[in-house]
Amino acid sequence: MNLLLHEVRSMLASAVIWAAVLCALAGLYLVLFAGIARDADTFKRIFAAYPVAIQHALGVTIDSVASLPGFYTMVLTFVTLAGAIQATNAGVSILSKESRDGTADFLYTKPVSRFGLVSAKLGAVLLVLLATDAVYSVVSGLILAGAQASSGVVSDPAIFVLLNLTLLAVQLMMFSMGLAVSLLFRRLQSVLPVSLGLVFGLYLVGALVNTDEAARWLSPFKYFDLHEITAKVAFQSDSLLAALALIAFGVVAAYVVTLRRDLHVR
Fold first, then answer.
1. Which domain holds residue 141?
2. What pLDDT, in 10s, does the model give residues 40-50?
3. pLDDT tens digit string along 184-205?
4. Would you say residue 186 lies in a domain?
5. Using 50, 70 and 90 to split pLDDT, how confident is the model at 228?
6. Three-state SS for 257?
7. Helix, strand, or coil here: 87?
8. What is the DSSP letter of 2?
9. CA distance readout (Å), 181 to 59, 124, 162, 220, 250
10. Which residues contact 77 (CB under 8 A, 6 or more apart)?
11. Separation of first and last alpha carbons in the chain
């Protein structure tokens, strides 16, 4: 428990910053919705002029972009990208930082098993991501309520709850992938280039294969079809299963490799 709380405290400052970033992104775009709803036809023509690949990358469909749920899917695309950077950075760094900082030998002499050590670190990241997303959900809910009041557009709140849950799902998948990638390095000197490369690389892959039903599984950013969730007010079962499998892979790999790997110190 002490180790878990220590890890949470060490990530607290960055979590506050990331929560502020996510809320600011949502607020920045959603304050524009009332004007967009009043001039929907013009807005649709602007987006119709964009190449299809750009529309897919932005998470836009022309028919629904002037509705609040449809517009929010575009907003959530940018929010999810930022959230994925936070989660991937945590995944790459959480198990590698002891070797990177030269404290691995000290930590492993403490009366805690390696299994307990990994569990505490993963539990700390989970708590931080849940707290970040809880703050974002509350703030974005207030902003969405304001957008509905100013535009006169009323939408089912359940849609926005499900859409916000996709943010957490993508974060957990990217955290898991960050974990798996960090295990490939005996000693990782710098976290940011690895995490940014992984996030933007997979985001680009998702944008390029968006229209290919099979290839979309190559990118966690495309596991959940936000427009289908908006239309059906439900998750796709295959997306949930694929997400759970990817998360489990990274977590299991973290335990297996950490329990078997020789201790690397300075």
1. 2-260
2. 677 777 777 76
3. 877 777 888 899 999 999 988 8
4. yes
5. confident
6. helix
7. helix
8. H
9. 27, 19, 29, 15, 9
10. 58, 59, 226
11. 27
In a domain, 265, yes or no: no
In the chain, the number of structural domains is: 1
* pLDDT at position 155: 74
**Residue 61 structure tokens:** 């469909």
Please report whether residue 218 resides in a domain. Answer: yes
Q: Are residues 209 and 234 in contact, defined by beta-carbon separation less than 8 angstroms? A: no
Query: What Rg do the C-alpha atoms of the chain give, in angstroms?
Result: 20
- Residue 256 covered by a domain: yes
The structure tokens listed for 157 are 């709140």
Nearest C-alpha neighbor of 174 from the set 220, 210, 109, 205: 220
Q: What is the 3-state secondary structure (H, E, C) of 111-131?
A: CCCHHHHHHHHHHHHHHHHHH
Cα separation, 180 vs 258, in Å, equals 11
Decide: 24 and 140 in contact? Cβ < 8 Å: no
Cβ(156)–Cβ(233) under 8 Å? yes
Query: Who's near 179: CB < 8 A, 6+ residues apart?
Result: 91, 92, 94, 95, 250, 251, 253, 254
CA distance linking residue 249 with residue 36, whole number of Å: 42
Extract the tokens encoding 246: 């990817």
Residue 92: name the closest of 206, 188, 212 by CA.
Answer: 188
Model confidence pLDDT, tens digit, residues 69-116: 888 888 898 999 999 999 999 999 888 776 665 555 555 556 667 788
